[in-house]
Amino acid sequence: MKQAESILSLRDVEKTFAGHKAVDGVSLDIARGEVVAVIGPSGSGKSTMLRCINLLEVPDSGTISVDGKNLDTSGTVSARDLTQLRRRVGMVFQSFNLFPHMTVLRNISLPQERVLGRSREEADRRSMELLERVGLQQKADAYPAKCSGGQQQRVAIARALALDPEIMLFDEPTSALDPELGLEVLAVMRQLADTGMTMIVVTHEIHFAATVADRLIVMADGRILEQGPPQQVLDDPQHARTRTFLSAIKDR
Amino acid sequence: MDVLSIIVAAIPVTLGVTAASFAIGALLGLVLVAGRRSRWTVVRGISRSIVEVLRGIPPIVLLFIIFFGIGSGSLRMEPFQAAVIGLGLVSAAHLSEVYRGSLLAVPKGQFEAADALGLSRTTTSARVIAPQAFRVAMPGMVTWAISLLKDSALVSTIGVAEIMSVTNQYARSSGDGLMPFILAAAVYIAIGTPLAIWSRWLEKRFARIRKAA
Amino acid sequence: MKSAIFSDWAEWLPRLLDGLWVSVQVTGLSLIIGLVVGLLLALAAFARTRLLTWPAVLLVEIGRGMPALVMLQLVYFGLPSVGLTLETYAAVVLALSLTTAAYTSEIIRAGLRAVPDGELEAADALGMSRSDVMRFVVIPQGLRIALPTLLGFAILIFQISSLAFSLGLPELLSQAYSIGANTFRYLDVLTLAGLLYLAVTIPAGWLVARFERRLSRHLTT
Fold first, then answer.
1. Do C186 and B64 touch (CB under 8 A)?
2. Cα–Cα distance measured from residue B78 to residue B88, given in angstroms and rounded to the nearest whole number
3. Which range marks the domain in which residue A164 is found?
4. Structure confidence at residue B210 (pLDDT)
5. Distance between CA atoms of residues B165 and C67, nearest Å
6. Could you tell me the residue ranges of all domains in chain C?
7. What pLDDT score does A70 carry?
């Protein structure tokens, strides 16, 4: 992959928690419009790597650049750089994390007003568009507690999209959901991939990874074990650890 | 004598009032919580009313009713006795609530398992439920002891010569209204802080045990 | 005999109700002032700078650690020696406000802490500024979580207002005591005063409990 095309690059990113290297020197280039799925056993550092990208975890060393703009993380990152980074990188969490005291509409509109400075009308209009896209316009005035988990996660996706990010990060977006509710979230993500959004998805959904992702990355012990087109990695894994992990998932 | 040594000399009285009231409350609280879990509706209703009245009335009003009201009539009472009875009753109500909460925290499965094993009601209560409930109740009991320590200052108003009372006297006779009260406050904080730390430690330990289970 | 008691009660009641009104007034004023200060202290204790956190925590621990009675005496008898002499009424309101601030700041801080970390992360990930996160996410939810406990404390501070008796404020207990001193009918008049306190605290307690049940039903999925 040519450097010029990449919208996101990680160089030698490291993150240590209490003496344990969660991310151990990861380098990665993601092309605009690429959909990357990241799999690996729990504790492999895949979530931490993802959280380093939008600096929810500040790496101990390494650089992160979004669209050619370099962030040296070894110093302190200024609040302005942080905001700039985060409005370009959207994130969806395993536990949805909607604000329970706001309606669905407010959840999506408030960040637009505060971060992008949109007017209330403009924000609400954009929110309704996105709610329609995720099939939830009828839930605009409901509180999160009155929505199913799958609906909450779709709202969370709409909330992240409302800031018009260039990259979307998904941290095990279906792990907290019953299988059938997970499907409706995956459908929205599939649709989003079709629009050309750059996506990095940490997931256990092998089928989704196989059918939607352009590239599959396998992580273990904080490192990238192997990567490539999903079918190739799934059918012909190069590492014994990948084979063990894949068969453990398939046997379930 | 300087004011600090006067205050320090009164510490045993404060601790005595606190400890005696706590002991009475700890025992009477058991009776009240048993009443609230009784089979009979009337007993439950009466126990609940007693708790609500004792918790609803300001402790100083209860002390006055006992000391000036009852004590001025047929039943002569020393200030110390009235103090311990009054604060003991208040403690009983609060501690019964602590006990009740801790009993609710024992999982229902424990009662069912004991039943399934054919244990008697007494054995179940004494050997299975009480030890678990007690661990849960400990932090709340210590927290109450801290409140009680501070409430014991009230008994100065009926003439028990504890910290607050001797401080007041000294302030009045010396004309210095600032230093004596600052010192008294410091002494209360000095006694209460270790208890607060202990309570927090118990709470943390309990949370850990629960997580591990 | 019984009817005699009731006719006495009827005679005392107006004075006691006057006293009750004073109790309610100082309670209300102390709650308003104390809650504002309590919220500020809670925010200071919640801040990221030690410079703010330490003094706030220290003040709160001192305020909570001393008996309310000591706070009253300290304000009334102590402040004049640093040049601030207050009337009884003002001294009582100031002392009860300080006590309220110390206790409620702790309650509010616990509420702010109870806001789930995931929501703070989500707000961070959306690029919201620290002050926006506090204003739109943490404070509204933290206050809502703290509300039942704060209401419970309001009942407690109403009870504590009876300590103003020690400074001679003509609140409910003072009125009852002075009637007792004149008539030597301590038991009767103090019991009546006790019933008046209960007439406020018990229904208020029920309302708080009911409110708490309703709130917990709403917030859970």
1. yes
2. 15
3. 3-251
4. 64
5. 13
6. 28-219
7. 79
Task: At C133, list the tokens.
Answer: 């996160």
Mean pLDDT of A22-32: 92
Domains and CATH numbers, chain B: 3-212 (1.10.3720.10)
- Do residues A153 and A183 lie in contact, with contact meaning Cβ atoms separated by under 8 Å? no
Per CATH, the number for C28-219 is 1.10.3720.10
- The structure tokens 């690059």 sit at A9
With contact defined as 3+ CB pairs under 8 Å, the chains touching B are: C
Q: What residues of chain B lie within 8 A of the CB of C82, using their CB?
A: 178
Candidates C122, C128, C221; nearest CB to A114: C128
Pairing of strands A198-202, A35-39: parallel
Rounded Cα distance, B14 and B164, in Å = 9
Cross-strand pairs, A169: A91, A200
The predicted structure's pLDDT at residue A3: 44
Chain B positions touching C19 (Cβ under 8 A) are none
Tell me the C-alpha distance between A51 and A43, whole Å. 14
CA–CA min distance C136, chain B (Å): 31
Q: pLDDT of A58-77, one tens digit each?
A: 888 888 888 877 777 766 77
Best mutation target, B174, B181, B195, to test chain C (most C CBs within 10 A): B181
Q: What's the complex ipTM? A: 0.89
Which residue out of B49, B51, B54, B61 would a mutagenesis test of the C interface target, given it has the greatest number of C Cβ atoms within 10 Å?
B61
Low-confidence ranges of chain C (pLDDT < 50): 221
Both structure tokens of C90: 């003002």
CATH number at residue A49: 3.40.50.300
- The answer to whether C40 faces chain B, any CB pair under 8 Å, is no
Token pair in block for residue C71: 């706070």
Q: Residue range B52-68: average pLDDT?
A: 95
Q: What percent of chain B has pLDDT over 90?
A: 66
Q: Taking 50 as the threshold, does the pLDDT of residue B21 lie above it?
A: yes
* Beta carbons of B101 and B139 less than 8 angstroms apart: no
CA–CA gap between residue C154 and residue C173 (Å, rounded): 18
Query: CB under 8 Å to A51, separation ≥6 — which residues?
Result: A57, A171
What is the Cα gyration radius of chain B? 20
Give me the sign of the Cα torsion angle A116, A117, A119, A124: positive
Distances in Å between the Cα of C168 and the Cα atoms of B83, C68, C160, C171, C198 are 21, 16, 14, 8, 22
Interface size between B and C, measured as CB pairs under 8 A? 126
What is the Cα–Cα distance from A225 to B121, expressed in whole angstroms?
A: 60
Is the CB of C216 inside 8 Å of chain A's CB atoms? Answer: no
Max alpha carbon distance in chain C (Å)?
Answer: 75
Site from A110, A112, A172 to mutate, C interface, most C CB atoms within 10 angstroms: A110
